[in-house]
From TrEMBL:
This is DUF2264 domain-containing protein. PANTHER family: DUF2264 DOMAIN-CONTAINING PROTEIN, LINALOOL DEHYDRATASE_ISOMERASE DOMAIN-CONTAINING PROTEIN. It holds the Pfam family DUF2264. Coiled coil: none annotated. InterPro entries: DUF2264_N (IPR049349), UCP014753 (IPR016624). Residues 32-391 form the DUF2264 domain.
């Protein structure tokens, strides 16, 4: 009898282990590419699958911040918002052609969904047709769609000519909105960079104005003011640095008039990447400072973008950046209330409505997709194959010796 019970117990334990491995085969290494893919898929699937099936407006909750200024309007614009924010983060991954059999199958599914989703969003006969002329917020959200296409030319190449034309007109439609005198200047400039890349004409002045004004707002040590006054928040990472970098990459192909400015932007990009890495605590938390903290891991948009572009400064290894970003991802997604019925909640660590800003809706938190940008690097790239290393906070707060931080004058 005891022998039979012991045999049964061994069988149950083995079955549980096997079942657990099948259910979650990547939990053993949470800095692995598989872990990142799992989290990306969990976040993006409800959005892209729904839009591909022309049912986003049916499935997507109509949630806004408790401090919302105009609830009806914020709900109206949430669809362009969620599309742009998800695409801006996953688009580099869509352009790859390698990976494991499972990853390639997943990518094929997302490619199919994305192309059909864009068709539905831009087809006036579709249920999920998205207007780009409802208000100034759509200038913001169109720019994230522009970012996605600049990060992934594959998307443009696989759209049919009719949908390409609709997208160009949709982006141009947002020119009617006057940007707020802040990082919004970069939204206008990014849309023009998209047009410079994929259409026959673009507005040079909108780009030049953004470059010249941001130069005036540079305050030193790799950071910019977001408008006439400095505020301590993460907008240097949410928007300013990655947008300056992305626009620069396009305009550098058109003219050499900005060479000296671009040289400074690149140095500032590197310095701010160093600052961001130092802000990641030993457990993946980071200071919940300033507005828009419900964007979660997008606080490290710039660090992820620098890794994707292979532009990390010498002070940062790919192994430590991968580990640090993985820790942020793990922390910001681990709360049981991070998702409600598969949709992201408004919060930083789970559902925290009090952290919302007046402009937040159900689409807003999806800017966190930008933390997944390094998935646009091949699985054989050194970002994924290099040895995992402890990031600065892990080393310092465990008593290890480490390099001190050093401010830089980049004028």
């Amino acid at each position: 009898m005891m022998k039979n019970v012991w045999t049964l117990w061994i069988f149950i334990c083995f079955a549980a282990m096997t079942y657990g491995q099948k259910r979650n085969p990547i939990a053993w290494k949470e800095t692995s590419r598989a872990f990142w893919l799992k989290e990306m898929d969990r976040m993006a699937r409800p959005v892209m699958r729904s839009l591909a099936h022309d049912s986003l407006k049916i499935n997507m909750p109509q949630i806004t911040s408790v401090a919302v200024d105009n609830k009806e309007h914020r709900i109206q614009v949430q669809y362009v918002e969620v599309l742009g924010r998800v695409l801006s983060g996953i688009s580099p991954w869509l352009a790859l052609n390698d990976g494991s059999e499972e990853e390639q199958a997943l990518r094929k599914q997302y490619r199919n969904w994305t192309i059909q989703a864009l068709k539905n969003a831009l087809d006036s006969n579709a249920n999920d047709f998205m207007r780009f002329d409802l208000g100034g917020q759509q200038l913001v959200d169109a720019s994230f769609i522009s970012v996605a296409f600049l990060r992934c030319p594959w998307l443009w190449d696989h759209l049919d000519p009719v949908t390409q034309g609709h997208l160009i007109e949709a982006i141009k439609t947002t020119r009617q909105f006057r940007p707020v005198f802040s990082n919004w200047l970069l939204f206008s400039a990014m849309n023009e960079a998209f047009l410079a890349q994929y259409s026959t004409s673009w507005d040079v002045m909108r780009v030049d104005y953004a470059f010249q004004q941001l130069e005036q707002w540079y305050v030193g040590d790799g950071m910019y003011m977001d408008g006439p006054h400095y505020a301590y928040d993460y907008y240097n990472s949410y928007v300013i640095h990655p947008f300056l970098s992305g626009i620069m990459d396009v305009i550098d192909q058109k003219t050499k008039n900005y060479d000296s400015m671009f040289a400074k932007i690149k140095l500032r990009n590197q310095r701010y990447a160093i600052i961001l890495e130092r802000l990641i605590n030993t457990d993946g938390t980071f200071p919940p400072s300033g507005r828009s903290v419900i964007y979660r891991g997008a606080a490290f948009h710039h660090l992820a973008d620098m890794a994707l572009k292979k532009r990390l400064p010498k002070e940062l290894t790919e192994g430590q950046v991968r580990a640090a970003l993985s820790a942020v991802m793990r922390k910001t997604f681990e709360s049981p209330s991070t998702y409600h019925q598969n949709w992201l909640t408004i919060g930083l660590y789970g559902d925290q409505p009090g952290l919302g800003d007046f402009y937040n809706n159900q689409g807003s938190p999806y800017l966190c997709s930008t933390i997944f940008l390094p998935l646009g690097l091949s699985e054989t790239d050194s970002f994924w194959t290099s040895k995992e290393e402890e990031w600065s906070s892990k080393r310092i707060w465990s008593g290890q010796d480490w390099k001190k931080d050093q401010s830089k004058v980049i004028q």
